[in-house]
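Quarterly update from the structural biology core.
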Amino acid sequence: MRVHAPHTGAVGFLRRVAGVAALAARASLRTKTVAALLALLATCVWVLPRVVKGDGTPEGDLNILFSYTLGFSFGLLCLATLWSSCALFASEIDSSRMQLSAVKPVRAAEFWIGKWLALLALNAVLLAAVYAGVYAQSLWRIHRSGGTASESLMSRRVSHPLMPTPREEALQAYQTMREQNALPKDLSQKAVLRALEQKANERYDVVNPGEPARWKFRLAHPLRVGEPVTVRLRFDTEFSTREQVKGAFQLASASCPGPAVEVQLDDFTQNEIEFVVDTRAFTTTGISTEAARAAEKNGLREFELTFRHLGDSKRSSALMLRNRQDVVLLTPGGSFEANLARSALVQGSVLALLAAFGLTLSACFSMPVAAFTATVLLVLTLVGNSVAQVTSEEDAKVWHNRIGIAVSHVVNQASGHAMKAKPLAALAHGERIEDAVLMSSLLWNGVLIPFVFALAGCAVLRRRELAEGE
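Predicted structure, tokenized:
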């Protein structure tokens, strides 16, 4: 006879889930796995920045911390989460210890959610320790170099030029090709549009010596007068001719008509140019008092950037850049500490997804089979995303490549939400992780996809006579 739980409804559900989570976390802490993982993470955080050397600049050292140290630590947590979650159900089912809980009664969903929350809690503690160690090291390195945290650790919003989206440009190009009867006959419309969209996103525009280039921007958040705006331009050109490249930038505020701020640069030895403009220059001279007051009240939102290539046409080469990716305006976007927390939340949501995936495999298979399946699928995801990005239409025409390419595209679509956010790259470049990216990662990786895995895992557990009892 089944003994009914003394608590029913939502309160009983929460108590049983909390009990399962506490037992799972306590069991994990009793093992040496957590201690070994903590030692590995500590070694990674404190030793790796001393082994991997940057370019010798404070910015290069911070890039090592945020890109390599956090990236390697996150990789360790991903593997540990995946493999440990594959063992939670499988080991208890194989040893028949799980059957003792069937008389509580504890439902399959309560088992699944409780163990998932235990993994989330352990990951949250470990991830917080890693981020705290990296942040402490960054402050120490900045202090040692004589700089200040406010100058080196930044969080800036990224604004791109106003342009049609790659999809819109692809549709326009497709329409032109159809009118000119130039469409490939052996490719479908979907394949042609995908190729045109990729080409539009990666297309390089050329700025020859003596030619100007203009870009218009509209900020999502108005910029207060007095706040700095940073112009960043990445370009490609021959290294041997970069010393002959010279240029002049003009930044004007369309929302505050007045004189443009001109900056002349003659050092293009690097392939990235970045300079800061004080927005007070747009309101101090050349405009009426009413316009200045309106700018003070409403802020600055619209800007126009002009670049003139002043290099000698006989000695200097052209500049090549991608308008959609290589020309941006950077504006203040909150504190670096808040951006660091957003990065941790994005990575935590990916760990939640891996924990849910491993738990479902653990409910389906034994420990070795679950771990092997998880590893194979993880490698397939990484390889599939790489293949989907580099395959061409010519590759798809070969019959023995079609199956692999089709599988790669399916894997790319399935894992797109998990792989979309790149928080460490944003931290390394001082760019704010936008709220939309954070919420999308939390929703898909932390809620919706784990919910689907939970349904599948609970269905398997019921079939294995776990929660229902026999």
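Strands lie at 156-159, 205-207, 212-223, 228-234, 247-253, 261-265, 272-278, 300-309, 319-321, 327-332.
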